[in-house]
Every structure is written in structure tokens, then in C-alpha cells.
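WARN retry 2 of 3 for item q-0093 after timeout on previous attempt; input resubmitted unchanged.
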Amino acid sequence: MTGLSIPGAGTPRPGQEVPPAAAPDLPERRSRIPHHVRFWLLRPGLVLSVLLIAGVLLAAFFPDLLTSRDPLAAAPQDKLLPPGAGHPFGTDQLGRDLFARVVHGSFLTLQATVLAVSVGLLVGSLAGLLAGYRGGAVDDALMRFTDVLLSIPGLLLSLALVTALGFGTVEVALAVGVTSVSTFARIMRAEAMKIARSAYVEAARASGTRWPAVLVRHVLPNAAGPVLVYAAVDFGAVILQVSSLSFLGYGAQPPTPEWGSLVSDGRNYLATAWWLTTLPGLVIAATVLAANRIARALDGDDREAR
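OK item q-0093 returned
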């Protein structure tokens, strides 16, 4: 009857199961957090990686926001000062602020990296697209050329190319970019061969569409995804290659700062000034790791250890 309450009616008897409504609804509480917010909260490593890459881009294009010091200004009275409040990364053998040199050197390093990835992406994608779609003699000729590139170690090939082209940031970027052409070409070729056999491509051919139009309208847009993901994956490796050639003296010439050359400049002072090599090296390592973490997220493998 209405208004009457039975004592003990809300208490489950021994052995009686609790109704589902009585249990706390944790999934419902969790669903109150927006999906995009929950995505970032569960991936702190990805958040740190994005912030680090954003900081590197800020240093490359707006260095004056991070430091007001001149990276080329020498102060002999302040030479080889350890990291401190006035000089976060210390000073080098000429008294130049190392943090300012790292900040200003990020532009040349990123410029060479982006140019190298662009060369590999454009040339390799074009070769793979033609080889995968046309087949026959075109495929054989282009793939044998990529086989020759793959048979030569990347660092050795880039050293040979940069020796022939000359020293400089652009020359280093071109040399490194050529070493990645073969991988881009193979990925694009595999995707183009798969898409060339699809129904909509066959329909386009049957309707009389010329093959260049089929490539641009149908094959390229659908095959570009894996290639672009690999470009993000290759970004970190290219930073290492560009820095390696700069370390060997093939990049920007002194006194222009570049990450690899900064590591090289501190080799003779490891015993007395460890920061000259260690801190620029840590910046390179952190940037490469952050780029690889973002590439993993773009590739769909964005599971973060909990």
C-alpha cells in the first residue's frame, strides 16, 4: 500500500544477489569525461611529446621568445661557465651562451630535416606510384634502382652524396633525402598495386579516363595514407642522420650553430665542461623520442602504459 514501508526491505538477504542498479555505475561516471579529454589524460607520454615538439618549433621560428642572447656573441670572461641561473646550459670555450646556440640552431636542423623528408617523400612516392600502377618495364626499372639504393648503407650513401654536392645544410638535407627514397617508393608501390586492382579504378579505366587522371584522382589519394604515416615515423631518424653529418663537419660551417655541430664542438672539453656535449645531445635525443611517440599515435598504436 502507498505510504507504508516494510522494515528491512532494502537490505538483501544472505545469499541474495545485489541488483545491478545497486552497484556503482563506474562506466557511466567515466563517460561524463569528454572523449577527447580522456584521450589525452590516458596518454601523458603523448602530451609531453607534443609539448616538446611545440617547444622545438617555437625555438626554430620564434627564438627571441625563449632567449634574448646573441648566439654568436663571445664573452671570454665568461668562458666554460657551468649551467646556472644566468646561463641555463652554461657557456662554451668562447663564452657564448649554449642555450641561445641550441635555440637558434634548431632552425637549421629542422630545416634540413623537413627538406630531407620532403625529398624522400616526393621522389619516392612518385617512383612508387608509377611502378605500382604501370607495372611491366617501368616497374622493373624503378624497382631495380631502389634496390641499388637499399644495398648501400644509408650513412655511407649520404656521406658520398654530400662529398659530391659540397658542404652546407641544404646539401646535407638532399643527401639524407636520397637515402630514404627507396623506402618511400616501396611503400607507395605496394599501396598503388593494391588500389589499381580495385573496382572503382577498373570502372574509371573502362569509362575511358586517361591513366594520369586515374592516378591523380583515385590512386594517389587512397595510397597516400601509409606513406604520410611513414614520413612522420622517418622524421626522428632523419634528425639523427642530419645531426650525424653535421657532427662530422658537413653541415653549417662555424660559427653558425647547429645541433650536430654543437655536440662536435664540445668533444675536446668532456673532462672539464661536460655540458657542451651532453645538453645538446639530450635535446637531440628528446626530440627524436618525441617525434617517434607522435608517429606511433598517428600510426594507430597510441596505447599508453597505465
